[in-house]
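[job 4471] stage=fold_predict status=RUNNING
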Amino acid sequence: MKKPTYDVAIDAMRTVSILAVILIHTSTKILQFGQDDLITLPVAIFSNQISRFAVPLFFMISGFVLELNHKDESYAAYLSRRVKKIFVPYVVWSLIYSLWVYPQDLSNLPRLILYGGASYQLYFIPAIVVFYLIFPILHRLISFISNKWVMISLLTIQMWFLYRDYYIKPLAFEELVRIPTLAFWVFLLGMVAAKNLTKMKILVEKFRWWLTGLMILMAGFVFWEGRSGFLRTHNYFLYYSQWRPSTLIYTSAVAGSLYYWLGKLKRWSNVVSEMSKLSFFVFFVHILVLELTIKYLGGETMNDLTLFLTVTITSFVLGSAVHRIGKLKWLTG
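[job 4471] inference complete, writing C-alpha coordinates
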Protein backbone atom coordinates (compact mmCIF):
# COMPACT_ATOMS: atom_id res chain seq x y z
CA MET A 1 0.00 0.00 0.00
CA LYS A 2 1.37 3.39 -0.96
CA LYS A 3 2.26 5.55 2.02
CA PRO A 4 0.00 8.66 2.17
CA THR A 5 1.63 11.95 1.26
CA TYR A 6 2.32 14.19 4.27
CA ASP A 7 -0.59 16.54 4.84
CA VAL A 8 0.45 19.70 6.66
CA ALA A 9 -3.20 20.70 7.17
CA ILE A 10 -3.90 17.74 9.47
CA ASP A 11 -0.88 18.46 11.68
CA ALA A 12 -1.82 22.14 11.76
CA MET A 13 -5.41 21.27 12.71
CA ARG A 14 -4.15 19.01 15.49
CA THR A 15 -2.02 21.89 16.80
CA VAL A 16 -4.94 24.33 16.63
CA SER A 17 -7.07 21.79 18.51
CA ILE A 18 -4.63 21.41 21.41
CA LEU A 19 -4.30 25.20 21.63
CA ALA A 20 -8.09 25.41 21.80
CA VAL A 21 -8.13 22.76 24.56
CA ILE A 22 -5.66 24.84 26.59
CA LEU A 23 -7.75 27.95 25.96
CA ILE A 24 -10.87 26.19 27.25
CA HIS A 25 -9.13 25.23 30.47
CA THR A 26 -7.37 28.54 31.12
CA SER A 27 -10.51 30.56 30.38
CA THR A 28 -12.53 28.24 32.62
CA LYS A 29 -10.12 29.02 35.46
CA ILE A 30 -10.52 32.74 34.82
CA LEU A 31 -14.29 32.32 34.99
CA GLN A 32 -14.01 30.32 38.21
CA PHE A 33 -11.79 32.98 39.79
CA GLY A 34 -14.46 35.51 38.82
CA GLN A 35 -17.22 33.33 40.32
CA ASP A 36 -18.68 32.74 36.86
CA ASP A 37 -19.61 36.40 36.43
CA LEU A 38 -19.96 36.29 32.65
CA ILE A 39 -20.99 39.94 32.42
CA THR A 40 -17.66 41.24 33.72
CA LEU A 41 -15.57 38.55 31.99
CA PRO A 42 -16.58 38.85 28.32
CA VAL A 43 -13.17 37.83 26.92
CA ALA A 44 -13.01 34.69 29.04
CA ILE A 45 -16.49 33.47 28.12
CA PHE A 46 -15.98 34.37 24.45
CA SER A 47 -12.68 32.50 24.16
CA ASN A 48 -14.12 29.62 26.17
CA GLN A 49 -17.07 29.21 23.80
CA ILE A 50 -15.36 29.69 20.45
CA SER A 51 -12.87 26.96 21.44
CA ARG A 52 -15.62 24.36 21.81
CA PHE A 53 -14.72 22.72 18.51
CA ALA A 54 -11.49 21.37 20.04
CA VAL A 55 -12.47 17.94 21.35
CA PRO A 56 -14.94 17.07 18.56
CA LEU A 57 -12.25 18.04 16.04
CA PHE A 58 -9.77 15.72 17.76
CA PHE A 59 -12.22 12.85 17.26
CA MET A 60 -12.64 13.81 13.60
CA ILE A 61 -8.88 13.99 13.03
CA SER A 62 -8.49 10.57 14.69
CA GLY A 63 -11.03 9.01 12.33
CA PHE A 64 -9.35 10.68 9.34
CA VAL A 65 -5.83 9.55 10.25
CA LEU A 66 -6.86 5.99 11.14
CA GLU A 67 -8.67 5.53 7.82
CA LEU A 68 -5.97 7.25 5.77
CA ASN A 69 -3.18 5.12 7.24
CA HIS A 70 -5.04 1.83 7.54
CA LYS A 71 -3.17 -1.25 6.37
CA ASP A 72 -4.10 -4.90 6.26
CA GLU A 73 -2.90 -6.60 9.44
CA SER A 74 -4.22 -8.75 12.23
CA TYR A 75 -6.43 -7.22 14.88
CA ALA A 76 -3.77 -8.00 17.50
CA ALA A 77 -1.08 -6.21 15.49
CA TYR A 78 -3.39 -3.23 14.97
CA LEU A 79 -4.12 -2.96 18.70
CA SER A 80 -0.43 -3.27 19.50
CA ARG A 81 0.38 -0.32 17.24
CA ARG A 82 -2.50 1.93 18.17
CA VAL A 83 -3.88 1.30 21.62
CA LYS A 84 -0.62 0.43 23.37
CA LYS A 85 0.99 3.62 22.08
CA ILE A 86 -1.39 5.73 24.11
CA PHE A 87 -2.17 3.34 26.96
CA VAL A 88 1.21 3.40 28.75
CA PRO A 89 1.52 7.24 28.80
CA TYR A 90 -2.12 7.44 29.86
CA VAL A 91 -1.59 5.14 32.85
CA VAL A 92 1.59 6.99 33.85
CA TRP A 93 -0.14 10.37 33.70
CA SER A 94 -3.15 8.99 35.58
CA LEU A 95 -0.75 8.03 38.37
CA ILE A 96 0.93 11.44 38.31
CA TYR A 97 -2.40 13.26 38.63
CA SER A 98 -3.77 10.82 41.22
CA LEU A 99 -0.68 11.05 43.41
CA TRP A 100 0.43 14.68 43.18
CA VAL A 101 -2.04 16.94 41.43
CA TYR A 102 -5.49 15.77 42.52
CA PRO A 103 -4.64 13.21 45.25
CA GLN A 104 -7.07 10.30 45.31
CA ASP A 105 -7.40 6.91 46.92
CA LEU A 106 -5.32 4.59 44.72
CA SER A 107 -7.64 1.71 45.54
CA ASN A 108 -9.90 3.38 42.97
CA LEU A 109 -7.12 3.52 40.36
CA PRO A 110 -8.57 0.85 38.04
CA ARG A 111 -11.83 2.79 37.84
CA LEU A 112 -9.98 6.10 37.46
CA ILE A 113 -8.07 4.66 34.53
CA LEU A 114 -11.17 3.09 32.99
CA TYR A 115 -13.11 6.36 33.07
CA GLY A 116 -10.34 8.97 32.87
CA GLY A 117 -11.09 10.24 36.36
CA ALA A 118 -7.58 11.14 37.51
CA SER A 119 -7.80 14.60 35.87
CA TYR A 120 -10.58 16.33 34.02
CA GLN A 121 -8.95 16.27 30.58
CA LEU A 122 -8.23 12.54 30.67
CA TYR A 123 -11.78 11.39 29.87
CA PHE A 124 -10.82 11.79 26.19
CA ILE A 125 -8.40 8.85 26.23
CA PRO A 126 -10.85 6.05 27.21
CA ALA A 127 -13.36 7.50 24.74
CA ILE A 128 -10.90 7.48 21.83
CA VAL A 129 -9.79 3.97 22.79
CA VAL A 130 -13.41 2.86 22.29
CA PHE A 131 -13.20 4.12 18.72
CA TYR A 132 -9.80 2.48 18.26
CA LEU A 133 -11.27 -0.84 19.35
CA ILE A 134 -14.16 -0.72 16.87
CA PHE A 135 -12.32 1.00 14.01
CA PRO A 136 -11.46 -2.24 12.12
CA ILE A 137 -15.20 -3.01 11.99
CA LEU A 138 -16.03 0.51 10.86
CA HIS A 139 -13.30 0.31 8.22
CA ARG A 140 -14.93 -2.77 6.71
CA LEU A 141 -18.22 -0.86 6.56
CA ILE A 142 -16.73 2.38 5.21
CA SER A 143 -18.17 2.00 1.70
CA PHE A 144 -21.63 1.59 3.24
CA ILE A 145 -21.09 4.44 5.72
CA SER A 146 -19.89 6.75 2.93
CA ASN A 147 -23.31 6.63 1.26
CA LYS A 148 -24.79 10.11 1.63
CA TRP A 149 -28.17 8.82 2.83
CA VAL A 150 -26.52 6.68 5.47
CA MET A 151 -24.50 9.68 6.65
CA ILE A 152 -27.61 11.87 6.72
CA SER A 153 -29.46 9.22 8.73
CA LEU A 154 -26.58 8.91 11.18
CA LEU A 155 -26.37 12.70 11.42
CA THR A 156 -30.07 12.85 12.32
CA ILE A 157 -29.53 10.28 15.08
CA GLN A 158 -26.46 12.15 16.32
CA MET A 159 -28.28 15.48 16.43
CA TRP A 160 -31.06 13.87 18.46
CA PHE A 161 -28.56 12.53 21.01
CA LEU A 162 -26.87 15.92 21.22
CA TYR A 163 -30.18 17.74 21.59
CA ARG A 164 -31.34 15.46 24.42
CA ASP A 165 -27.98 15.62 26.17
CA TYR A 166 -27.70 19.40 26.06
CA TYR A 167 -31.24 20.77 26.14
CA ILE A 168 -33.16 18.11 28.08
CA LYS A 169 -30.92 16.04 30.34
CA PRO A 170 -27.39 14.61 30.01
CA LEU A 171 -27.51 11.04 28.74
CA ALA A 172 -27.67 8.65 31.67
CA PHE A 173 -24.61 6.69 30.55
CA GLU A 174 -21.17 6.31 32.06
CA GLU A 175 -18.77 8.75 30.38
CA LEU A 176 -17.04 5.81 28.68
CA VAL A 177 -20.28 5.28 26.75
CA ARG A 178 -21.72 8.79 26.74
CA ILE A 179 -18.80 10.53 25.03
CA PRO A 180 -18.47 8.04 22.12
CA THR A 181 -22.25 8.22 21.73
CA LEU A 182 -22.03 12.00 21.34
CA ALA A 183 -18.94 11.89 19.11
CA PHE A 184 -19.60 9.02 16.70
CA TRP A 185 -20.64 11.19 13.76
CA VAL A 186 -17.57 13.44 13.74
CA PHE A 187 -15.34 10.35 13.97
CA LEU A 188 -17.17 8.76 11.03
CA LEU A 189 -17.02 12.04 9.09
CA GLY A 190 -13.24 11.99 9.48
CA MET A 191 -13.15 8.41 8.13
CA VAL A 192 -15.41 9.26 5.19
CA ALA A 193 -13.28 12.33 4.35
CA ALA A 194 -10.15 10.17 4.27
CA LYS A 195 -11.88 7.49 2.17
CA ASN A 196 -12.94 10.14 -0.34
CA LEU A 197 -9.87 12.34 -0.02
CA THR A 198 -9.71 13.73 -3.55
CA LYS A 199 -13.42 14.56 -3.59
CA MET A 200 -13.17 16.11 -0.12
CA LYS A 201 -10.32 18.39 -1.21
CA ILE A 202 -12.31 19.56 -4.22
CA LEU A 203 -15.36 20.28 -2.05
CA VAL A 204 -13.52 22.28 0.63
CA GLU A 205 -11.77 24.35 -2.02
CA LYS A 206 -15.03 24.98 -3.87
CA PHE A 207 -16.93 25.96 -0.73
CA ARG A 208 -14.06 27.51 1.24
CA TRP A 209 -15.72 30.91 1.61
CA TRP A 210 -19.06 29.39 2.56
CA LEU A 211 -17.33 27.20 5.13
CA THR A 212 -15.38 30.15 6.52
CA GLY A 213 -18.53 32.24 6.76
CA LEU A 214 -20.41 29.41 8.45
CA MET A 215 -17.53 28.94 10.87
CA ILE A 216 -17.67 32.62 11.90
CA LEU A 217 -21.46 32.59 12.12
CA MET A 218 -21.53 29.44 14.25
CA ALA A 219 -18.75 30.74 16.51
CA GLY A 220 -20.99 33.68 17.31
CA PHE A 221 -24.00 31.45 17.87
CA VAL A 222 -22.11 29.01 20.13
CA PHE A 223 -20.88 31.97 22.18
CA TRP A 224 -24.41 33.41 22.47
CA GLU A 225 -25.89 30.00 23.26
CA GLY A 226 -23.45 29.17 26.07
CA ARG A 227 -23.50 32.65 27.60
CA SER A 228 -27.24 33.24 27.47
CA GLY A 229 -28.02 29.71 28.62
CA PHE A 230 -25.89 30.12 31.72
CA LEU A 231 -27.23 33.60 32.50
CA ARG A 232 -30.79 32.27 32.33
CA THR A 233 -30.29 29.16 34.46
CA HIS A 234 -26.87 29.45 36.18
CA ASN A 235 -26.30 25.90 34.98
CA TYR A 236 -22.52 25.52 34.54
CA PHE A 237 -23.04 22.64 32.09
CA LEU A 238 -24.65 24.96 29.53
CA TYR A 239 -21.47 26.87 28.83
CA TYR A 240 -18.98 24.13 29.60
CA SER A 241 -20.37 21.39 27.37
CA GLN A 242 -19.07 21.05 23.81
CA TRP A 243 -21.63 18.36 23.00
CA ARG A 244 -24.44 20.35 21.42
CA PRO A 245 -26.13 20.34 18.01
CA SER A 246 -24.57 23.75 17.36
CA THR A 247 -21.01 22.61 18.07
CA LEU A 248 -21.37 19.71 15.66
CA ILE A 249 -22.21 22.17 12.88
CA TYR A 250 -19.50 24.53 14.12
CA THR A 251 -16.87 21.75 14.23
CA SER A 252 -17.74 20.58 10.72
CA ALA A 253 -17.36 24.14 9.39
CA VAL A 254 -14.11 24.63 11.31
CA ALA A 255 -12.73 21.36 9.93
CA GLY A 256 -13.50 22.19 6.32
CA SER A 257 -12.31 25.78 6.56
CA LEU A 258 -9.12 25.00 8.45
CA TYR A 259 -8.26 22.08 6.17
CA TYR A 260 -8.24 24.44 3.22
CA TRP A 261 -6.54 27.47 4.76
CA LEU A 262 -4.00 25.60 6.89
CA GLY A 263 -3.02 23.56 3.86
CA LYS A 264 -1.34 26.76 2.66
CA LEU A 265 1.30 26.43 5.39
CA LYS A 266 3.57 24.10 3.40
CA ARG A 267 6.62 26.34 3.84
CA TRP A 268 6.13 25.98 7.60
CA SER A 269 5.63 22.22 7.48
CA ASN A 270 8.68 21.45 9.66
CA VAL A 271 7.50 23.74 12.46
CA VAL A 272 3.91 22.51 12.18
CA SER A 273 5.06 18.88 12.23
CA GLU A 274 7.14 19.39 15.36
CA MET A 275 4.33 21.17 17.20
CA SER A 276 1.91 18.44 16.20
CA LYS A 277 4.26 15.76 17.56
CA LEU A 278 4.27 17.55 20.90
CA SER A 279 0.49 17.85 21.11
CA PHE A 280 -0.07 14.48 22.82
CA PHE A 281 2.39 15.30 25.60
CA VAL A 282 0.95 18.82 25.88
CA PHE A 283 -2.52 17.31 26.24
CA PHE A 284 -1.34 15.39 29.29
CA VAL A 285 0.90 18.01 30.92
CA HIS A 286 -0.96 21.29 30.45
CA ILE A 287 -3.31 20.81 33.41
CA LEU A 288 -0.32 20.14 35.67
CA VAL A 289 1.33 23.30 34.31
CA LEU A 290 -1.91 25.22 34.85
CA GLU A 291 -2.20 24.15 38.48
CA LEU A 292 1.47 24.94 39.18
CA THR A 293 1.08 28.35 37.51
CA ILE A 294 -1.85 29.13 39.77
CA LYS A 295 -0.09 27.87 42.89
CA TYR A 296 3.37 29.38 42.44
CA LEU A 297 3.07 32.18 39.87
CA GLY A 298 -0.14 33.81 40.98
CA GLY A 299 -2.14 32.53 38.05
CA GLU A 300 -5.38 33.68 39.65
CA THR A 301 -4.23 37.30 39.18
CA MET A 302 -3.27 36.88 35.51
CA ASN A 303 -5.45 38.08 32.70
CA ASP A 304 -6.81 35.72 30.04
CA LEU A 305 -3.98 36.11 27.55
CA THR A 306 -1.16 35.94 30.09
CA LEU A 307 -2.46 32.75 31.69
CA PHE A 308 -3.03 31.12 28.30
CA LEU A 309 0.43 32.03 26.99
CA THR A 310 2.18 30.98 30.22
CA VAL A 311 0.55 27.54 30.20
CA THR A 312 0.94 27.05 26.44
CA ILE A 313 4.58 28.08 26.13
CA THR A 314 5.62 26.17 29.26
CA SER A 315 3.81 23.03 28.13
CA PHE A 316 5.37 23.07 24.66
CA VAL A 317 8.85 23.84 26.02
CA LEU A 318 8.56 20.93 28.43
CA GLY A 319 7.31 18.73 25.61
CA SER A 320 10.25 19.67 23.41
CA ALA A 321 12.72 18.90 26.22
CA VAL A 322 11.14 15.58 27.16
CA HIS A 323 10.86 14.43 23.53
CA ARG A 324 14.62 14.77 23.20
CA ILE A 325 15.10 12.13 25.90
CA GLY A 326 14.31 8.80 24.27
CA LYS A 327 14.04 6.99 27.58
CA LEU A 328 11.02 9.11 28.53
CA LYS A 329 8.85 7.73 25.74
CA TRP A 330 6.47 6.38 28.38
CA LEU A 331 5.59 10.03 29.11
CA THR A 332 5.19 11.19 25.54
CA GLY A 333 3.63 8.30 23.60
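[job 4471] summary: The chain has a mean pLDDT of 94.
[job 4471] exit 0
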